[in-house]
Amino acid sequence: MKNMISKLISLYDSVFNRFEWPQSLLLFFLRFFWGISFIQTGLGKLQHLDKITGFFTSLGIPFPGFNAALVGTFEFGGGILLLIGLFSRFAAATLTSTLIIAYLTADLPAVKALFSSDFDKFFAADEWPFLLVCLLVISFGPGRISVDAILKKFVRPKLLFK
Question: pTM for the full model?
Answer without folding.
Answer: 0.81
